[in-house]
Structure formats: structure tokens, C-alpha cells
Amino acid sequence: MKEQWSPNSWRLKPAKHLPIYKDEDVLNNALDKIKKFPPLVFAGEARSLKSRLSDVSKGKAFLLQGGDCAESFADFHPDNIKNTFKVILQMAVVLTFGASCPIVKVGRIAGQFAKPRSSDKETINGVELESYKGDIINGINFTKVDRSPDPARLIQAYNQSASTLNLLRAFSQGGYANLNKIHQWNLNFVEEEKANKFSEIADRIDECLAFMKACGINDNNVRQINETEFFTSHEALLLEYEEALTRIDSTSGKWYDVSAHMLWVGDRTRQLDGAHIEFVRGIENPIGIKIGPTTDENELLKIIDYVNPDNEGGKITLICRMGADKIDNHLPKIVKKIKSEGRAVIWACDPMHGNTIKSNTGYKTRPVSNIFSEIQKFFAIHRSLGSYPGGIHLEMTGSDVTECMGGLQQITDEDLKNRYHTFCDPRLNASQSIEIAFLISEYLKDDKFLSLKSSQI
Ligand code: PEP
Ligand code: CO
User: Fold this and answer.
1) For a tag site, which of 111, 163, 380, 430 has the least CB within 10 Å?
2) Residue of the CA atom closest to atom 1 of ligand 1
3) What structural domains and CATH numbers belong to the chain?
4) Residues 443, 277: Cα–Cα separation, whole Å
5) Ligand nearest to the CA of 117
6) Do residues 256 and 283 touch, judged by C-beta distance below 8 A?
């Protein structure tokens, strides 16, 4: 029989990647405040997302999830939020148009602060300090003060998430996302070829809207023209914070983590008997589980059954982050197992985390060619096994950064230093993100990908 669950039952399990706070009283004080703060999202919204994701699990929609690797206090600016939102809207339009299916938009935003690190400590010139673990935990500067986990950061992260969500809600429901404004979403630094291709789609949408208007269908009477649905997500890493925002929903009487619509468990914390899986199994939100080359399909099946015992569609998204060179060896056996056992999951591709390298100039980067290659292989594997490649999970930004090499802008190793702004992993810029949307829209079009040769990718 399943053990009793409560928002703090994770505390009885082994937990990886959680910080140690110097003063428990200061931490508990901050958590007590957060427990009284208003929810950031409503349970009903998380239910709507689950229902959209249930369509994805049936192959009737596609999940587009993306945003920063790590949000930061320093980069908190309306332009950054707006540009990321804009590029996700543009990608969604490209995908909707290409694939003729609804796109479920989920940002890695408004709460994506805590980071698991490969090493707990960092040493520079013989000085050893705690690694940077995301702005909700400690600071990025290499000083003892900055690197000490500080509970005041929990409150700041909550406040920043609330303001970010406020703006995102205004953008998605206040008219900014109106399809009649599609031309205004263009970002002028998007590489010309893709910008032109996007303008062509925008022109065709204009024509459709003019036709619909002539038929009496317009943004006054059709909500879908005037607004869009946009959901938030982040890694449920810092369990103290997630626990403080886990509440019983008065409508359903069930537990929801109201820090975001969707939460995921990272590749480093997805142990079946660990604290993170324990936490997410008790909440009703849609849950992502990252899977990588070390994932064992039998253990994964147990995790899925533990988190989703009723096999509810839309509940679990498996976010596959294998790496372009490993996906062929690792993904097929996992897909075969989960499919043969009849589990309803969404298969999403994270082509970022398995393709990180150190460039010759010393930057952590990701070659766009490898990102493309993993996506192509992901689609090919699913089609060959008769399962549906239902989503994409990207680290991206609407800003014109130079963090990933390649793409139509041909960012070279030498260019990386120009605008390398990430607080953690390298992100796709707007131009590279839109290139990927065009690539995927080709794959999503009726089996067309089968005829695409890798030379074209
Ligand atoms: C992330 O999504 O930023 C991350 C740390 O990913 P993963 O758990 O897949 O390594
Ligand atoms: Co990352």
C-alpha cells in the first residue's frame, strides 16, 4: 500500500541537491511568510493545462516548453519577459501553421530559479566556496557572503515570480497576443531568412483573419483571436519553497503546488525513493520527469506508476535529454517498454542538456547542429516505434545573445564572448529558436520528416 503523503513527507526521504542553511530559524521564518502569501497560480488553471496535455498525450496537440535555464534577479526586466513571450508566440504560430494542431505553450519562467549543479563546491585560485545554485538559493559572485544560502532570497524569488506572472497574464489576455497584431511580434534581430518566412505566415494569417471578419467572426466574438493561453513551469528542486506553496484546492479538495502550473523533476533528482519524486507524487499538477542516458526503463516504469497510479493522460511528460550521440542507443528501449506497458505519457525532447560542450575559447556552449540532430533523431525514433513525439523543451531567450554556436547567424566560437549573458546553461537566441520552430513544423507535417535527409538538417 502507498505510504501516506503530505506536503512535507519528502523530508523523510534522502534528498539530493538541497542547500544547507546556516540558521534554521531564519529559514523557517521566511517559509512561514511564504505559506501565507497568495497562490501564484490557481488550481483550475493547472487542471486546464492537464486537459490540454491530455490532448497532447493522444497526439492531438503539441507541447512547446521553453525559457531561461535560470532566471536571475539581475536580469529582471519587462523587456526580457516581453521578448521571451514574443518569441514563444512566434514559435507557436510557426508550429500551428505548419502542423495544423494546437500548441500548448508553457514557459520555463516565473519561478525557474533553483539549479542542481554537477559539483557542490567551486574552487578558484585555491579558494573553495559553495557552487552557485540559482538566485533563489545563493548569489553568483565568487564571495563567501554571496555564495552562502540566504533565506531572504526565497521571498525575493516569490515576488519576482509574482510580477513576472502578472505581466505574462496581461500580455496573454490583455490584447498583446491578438492575432491581428502578429506583425508587431517580429524581433528585428531575427535572421533575415527566418524573419521573412515568418512574415509570410503572418501575411497569410492576416488574409485568414480578413476573411473571417467578413464572415462576422472577429476578435470581439472569438476569444482565441484576441488572447492566448500561456502556462508556467519550473524545476521542483528547492522542496522547502515548493512545500510552502502547496495548498489544498477548495474546489477539488486536492493538493496543488501553486508556485507554477507544471513542475518537473530533474535528471539528477528523479530517484524512485528520493525526496523529489516523493514530493511530486502527491500534487495534482502536471509533472515533467527528465530522463537521460542513465535512465533505466524498469525503474522509470515504477516512477511513472508511483507518480501517476491512475495512468491519467496529461499528468506525466517525459522530457528526454539524451544527447545527439546517445539518443539512438538509449531512447528506443525506453519508448518500447513504456509503450508496451500502456502508460499514457507525453514524450518531449530536450535537445539542450545532453549537448553541452566546452568551446575552444572556454565557454560552455551547445552547437545548434547537435541540437538539430537530436531533434531529428527523436522524431525518427518515435515514428519508427509508432509513438507520438509530443513536445519540445528548450532553453531559450528572446534576447539577442551569443551562447549557442551555429544556426543561420553562424555564431562562431569567437562570437560567444560578445553577448554571453546566461547565469547557467547556454540558451538559444530568438533567431535560433525560430529556426527550430520551422524545423519541427516540417517534421510535424504528415510524416514528411521521413523523407528529410540528415544532410538537410
Ligand atoms: C535544466 O533543465 O536546467 C536541468 C538542470 O536539466 P537536467 O535535469 O535535464 O540536467
Ligand atoms: Co539548464
Assistant:
1) 163
2) 69
3) 2-177+227-455 (3.20.20.70)
4) 33
5) 1
6) yes
Q: What is the largest CA-CA distance in the chain?
A: 72
Strand duo 262-265 + 287-291: pairing: parallel
* Residue nearest to ligand 1 atom 6, measured at CA: 266
SS3 state at 226: helix
- CB-based contact 14:273 (threshold 8 Å): yes
Pairing between strand 357-358 and 231-235? Answer: unpaired
Query: Within 13 Å and on the Cβ side, how many CA atoms surround 317?
Result: 36
Number of H helices, E strands in the chain: 13, 14
Contact between residue 258 and residue 247 where contact means Cβ atoms under 8 Å apart: yes
Residue 202's CB: how many other CB atoms inside 10 A? 19
Yes or no: say if 441 and 99 are a contact pair by the CB < 8 Å rule: yes
What single letter denotes the amino acid at residue 403? Answer: E
- Residue 91 in grid coordinates: 514559435
Going by CA atoms, what residue is nearest to atom 3 of ligand 1?
Answer: 69
The grid coordinates listed for 294 are: 542513465
Measured from the CA of 425, which atom of ligand 1 is nearest?
A: 3
pLDDT for position 2: 65
Closest residue by Cα to residue 433 from 388, 372, 383:
372
Nearest-angstrom CA–CA distance, 69 and 58: 29
What are the pLDDT digits (tens) for 172-195? Answer: 988 888 887 887 777 676 777 777
- 298-317 tens-digit pLDDT: 999 999 999 999 999 999 99
CA distance 203 to 198: 9
